[in-house]
Design a protein that fits this description.
mainly alpha, 75% helix, single chain, globular, 18 helices, 441 residues
């Protein structure tokens, strides 16, 4: 197959409009998110509202970059099988503004009321924390982490898209959107521009991965771990950024399975490639639990009160309602996907793989909830899940807000895919593999 025919086939598969079902889902989930915020404020006050916002913020700021990171990993490792997933992964960039909006709401909310930042009330912080946990410095650091990591990721995305738009058919066939006009006005010689994109992507790929790991480790410390300024874990940053990547892979699997038949991508995403993605998801399941267990093991054998108290509150203390939720979270992000993804049938079945991926997303969501909610909700001992003032109301509110983020993000995700080629047809490896028929089922 010639590259021209391949470009035509990809552009034929590229959606031309957002389905009405996706629009309706976005509207309904956005309304649900507003209801969740009102419910959180009405039942538990400002602290619960800020907790719900922060949980969704730390998830969505990760979703905004992990898709580009996955594409960078495929570039860095020269993974041939993953090339067809690159554009579907990169489109997750639509979560960036959602995450930034939620984070801005949290930062403004904590400026109005300090209930969302417990460390503000700690007057005697030890170990240099009194210099680190200063409100203005805290805000500046968070913005710097995101500016650096997002800036590199967007640069990588720019060259990835520009490479596709050097193909004449792309600009002609796709609607004259802002992306089309912006990219087609940035080059004169298509061959020279494509070569420049290739070289820039090879340089940016490791930079995106490295900066993501460092920046999101510090974000985990400042946004989550600092909620309890007396507790610390040297592995918490790694646990957070690997969890983001694991959850992002699950979202990629959900998107790929839903678009495969709807957009006629069976030739590009056959069962063999689906199985490859499921295997990668299984690998990150093991990597994620490795960070989880290593963090727990270090705290356990150290047996230090300033470290073990945080863990006992969430996983051991029967007088608090968090332990039951901890076991649900562990089952969702490890036990269920680990067992399910051992079977080839699950890896090759679109419905089963989607179900497992949804469970993974729910498990990581619940893990983030358990890291944040106990520090802001302050549940009294003896309170059950269903008792007034318990965590169930906050959990439901946070689920509604998270559903709204995913629903609105899904709308913008689909909308972006109508403006760019749904497959990375400027990628020479993708073109070569498709032309050789390796992507055929």
């Amino acid at each position: 197959m010639t590259s021209r025919n391949l470009a035509t086939e990809v552009l034929d598969a590229t959606p031309t409009a957002v389905p009405s079902a996706v629009r309706l889902a976005a509207i309904l989930t956005a309304v649900a998110a507003l209801i969740g915020l009102v419910l959180a404020f009405a039942t538990s006050g400002a602290a619960a509202t800020l907790a719900a916002i922060l949980v969704c913020a730390v998830l969505t700021i990760g979703y905004g970059i992990v898709g580009i990171l996955i594409s960078a990993i495929f570039e860095l490792t020269n993974a041939k099988w993953g090339r067809a997933y690159r554009r579907l992964a990169e489109a997750g960039v639509v979560f960036m503004p959602i995450g930034l909006l939620l984070l801005a709401a949290y930062m403004i909310g904590t400026a109005v009321t300090t209930q969302g930042l417990p460390w503000v009330h700690h007057e005697h912080l030890s170990g240099g924390k009194h210099l680190w946990l200063v409100r203005g410095f805290w805000d500046l650091r968070i913005l710097a982490y995101l500016a650096l990591s997002y800036g590199l990721a967007l640069s990588f995305l720019y060259f990835s898209l520009l490479r596709d738009f050097t193909i004449p058919e792309v600009a002609k066939r796709l609607p004259r959107s802002f992306i089309n006009r912006w990219l087609t006005g940035h080059f004169a010689d298509p061959q020279q521009t494509r070569a420049r994109c290739e070289s820039r992507l090879k340089v940016l790929a490791p930079a995106v991965a490295f900066v993501y790991a460092v920046a999101f480790s510090f974000l985990a410390i400042d946004l989550i771990m600092a909620l309890d300024p007396d507790w610390f874990s040297t592995l918490f940053g790694g646990w957070y950024f690997i969890g983001n990547l694991f959850s992002g892979l699950a979202l990629l699997a959900i998107a790929a399975m839903s678009l495969r038949n709807r957009c006629g991508l069976q030739r590009f995403l056959p069962e063999a490639r689906q199985s490859d993605l499921a295997t990668l998801l299984f690998a990150f399941c093991l990597l994620n639990i490795d960070f989880f267990w290593s963090q727990y093991l270090t705290i356990w054998y150290g047996n230090l009160p300033e470290e073990t108290g945080w863990l006992i509150e969430r996983a051991v203390d029967d007088s608090l309602p968090w332990a039951k939720l901890s076991w649900v979270s562990l089952s969702a992000f490890f036990i269920i996907p680990f067992v399910a993804l051992l079977f080839r049938r699950v890896k090759r079945n679109r419905v089963l793989l989607t179900t497992v991926s949804v469970v993974v997303v729910a498990g990581i969501f619940l893990a983030r909830f358990l890291e944040i909610a106990p520090e802001l909700l302050h549940v009294e001992p003896g309170t059950g899940l269903l008792d007034g003032g318990g965590p169930l109301g906050l959990l439901l509110s946070t689920i509604l807000l998270f559903a709204g983020c995913v629903g609105v993000g899904g709308f913008f995700y689909y909308s972006l895919l109508t403006k760019v080629p749904i497959m990375p047809i400027g990628d020479e490896v993708f073109t070569r593999e498709c032309g050789s028929g390796e992507h055929a089922a």
